[in-house]
Write a structure and sequence with these properties.
With 483 residues, this protein is of the alpha/beta class. 34% of the residues lie in helices and 22% in strands. The chain contains 17 helices and 24 strands. Strands 9-8-7-10-6-11-12-13-14-15-16 form an eleven-stranded mixed sheet, sandwiched between helices. Strands 17-18-22-19-20-21 form a six-stranded mixed sheet, with helices on both faces. Helix 4 packs across helix 10 and helix 12 runs parallel beside helix 13.
Length: 483
């Protein structure tokens, strides 16, 4: 499209050069620039894109979108100045890729835990109903069944809009995406129109970035603030922040709960490690999921599906067929009756949820083992809490490595151990090598015991000294079990 078309819905401070230039692509990463592209100079947390304007021009950028003009302006390049490139990059990207959310219904899921499960189940359900769908999630992005690898929960605005544009071009009727707090704070979802939004829960996470819990909460709330009239907002009435999220939204608000009065309700009738018999919205249904936190997740899915206009019985039948998402309370059983559970739980609250579920199903008929760690170069404040909750809710604990990144694994383990009292330390050991930690738990557990391997879930790598090494908890468990 012409540069004039690209910027027509925005208000630049200044335009230097021709707006009749043909724009063949748009990027915020100067390394991705090709001839005829527009380069958007963004001020990031790690680097300032304004320092790479010259490099982008060398690679063929014909338009530079920036907050501050460079001292030397290159001939044949149009410079478009804005007060904030962060504010306009989303709308520009959306417009460049054909306004994809005007051609399909986009539903976003935000909260600390449960986003991946809810977004993935909605995607699977709509495909089960015969619709073409897209998914943007932590585990993988999909365009109607075709996997597209992902690096983070919510991509940058260019990558995100390119992906949504492909979904629209493929004829997708619906798209479901996880909306991270970073993406709201950094305006990565700017310019998108959402047909609906869901809130799961809010617990301590990402304070290395947001600094305070209030900032983190407000970032999540910001997503509901931008939902338009005509959209739906479904919130968790069991979370104390549930109603805070929707207090300023223009969308139609509905709630779900396993404890309080709400629009969508459910309760557990029976449960085992094979699944649960639920009463959901007055009807009985068996699901292949375990735990109260999963009842909440399934209620959110049910509520969204009903708000999207799907038939109650069809939704319940679809839920009964669904299986847990990769790395979310996945059970692996040994030949001699030990159960290992792989779960992505990497926050104190998620850990408590999973361990509470295990103990409720176990009913003291076996021991609960926990193998967990904490990520490097992330919120250090949650490390001692993770160890405390593991010790409080388990019979045996092995603290180990979990993506140390650029930190020393032993230093992270020491931070975790510092949270334990003398009594708790008696049931805890530390093994730096994650493979050995998992093997040790599998070797020492007795028939009837349950081992929770927490923290990595779907991830098939460990990041050590900044280098990714292949590592899959599932593979290590199966090898230890001789499967």
């Amino acid at each position: 499209m012409k540069l004039q078309q690209l910027i027509e819905k925005t208000t630049p401070l200044l335009v230097n050069g021709s707006t009749e230039t043909d724009i063949k692509g748009i990027e915020i990463d100067s390394r991705q620039i090709k001839d005829g592209y527009a380069f958007v100079a963004m001020r990031g947390t790690q680097a300032d894109g304004h320092n790479y304007i010259e490099k982008a021009v060398e690679l063929g950028a014909k338009a530079v979108i920036c907050e501050k003009l460079p001292e030397t302006l290159s001939e044949g390049v149009t410079y478009v100045q804005y007060e904030s490139t962060e504010d306009v990059v989303g709308p520009l990207a959306t417009h460049f890729f054909g306004d994809p959310t005007e051609k399909m219904k986009l539903v976003g899921v935000t909260g600390t835990n449960g986003k991946t499960t809810i977004a993935t189940l909605l995607y699977n359900m709509c495909r089960e109903f015969g619709y073409k769908c897209g998914l943007c999630s932590t585990v993988c992005n999909y365009i109607d069944g075709k996997p597209i690898p992902t690096e983070c929960t919510t991509p940058d605005p260019i990558t995100l809009n390119r992906l949504l544009g492909q979904m629209a071009d493929e004829g997708c009727d619906y798209a479901f995406m996880e909306v991270s707090s970073h993406s709201v704070a950094q305006k990565r979802i700017g310019g998108l129109t959402f047909a609906g939004g869901l809130f799961t829960n809010l617990t301590r996470d990402h304070l290395d970035y947001h600094k305070t819990f209030e900032n983190y909460r407000d970032a999540k709330k910001g997503f509901f603030d931008i939902l338009p009239k005509g959209a739906f907002a479904i919130t968790n009435a069991d979370d104390k922040n549930g109603m805070v999220m929707t207090q300023n939204t223009k969308a139609t608000v509905k709630s779900y709960s396993v404890r309080a009065a709400a629009d969508f309700k459910a309760k557990i009738l029976e449960e085992s490690f094979d699944g649960m018999n639920l009463e959901m919205d007055g009807s009985e249904v068996f699901v292949q999921f375990v735990g109260r936190f999963n009842v909440s997740n399934l209620l959110a899915v049910y509520g969204a599906a009903r708000m999207m206009g799907f038939d109650k019985q069809e939704v319940l039948i679809a839920l009964s067929k669904m299986k847990p998402v990769n790395g979310r309370f996945e059970c692996i059983r040994s030949k001699n009756g030990v159960t290992a559970i792989v779960d992505y739980a990497h926050t104190p609250d998620a850990l408590v949820n999973v361990l509470t579920t295990i103990n409720e199903v176990l009913q003291h008929k076996g021991e609960c083992w926990t193998v967990c760690g904490a990520g490097g170069n992330r919120d250090k404040g949650k490390r001692p809490i993770m160890a405390q909750e593991s010790a409080k809710n388990s019979d045996r604990v092995i603290i180990t490595s979990d993506n140390p990144r650029f930190e020393e694994p032993q230093d992270i383990i020491n931070d975790m151990l510092a949270g334990l009292d003398e009594e708790q330390k008696k049931k805890v050991i530390s093994i730096v090598d994650r493979r050995e930690a998992i093997r040790t738990a599998c070797m020492m557990a007795k028939p009837g015991d349950v081992i929770l391997v927490a923290g990595k879930g779907h991830e098939d790598y460990q990041i050590v000294k900044g280098v990714k090494h292949h590592f899959d908890d599932h593979e290590v468990i199966r090898e230890a079990f001789g499967l």
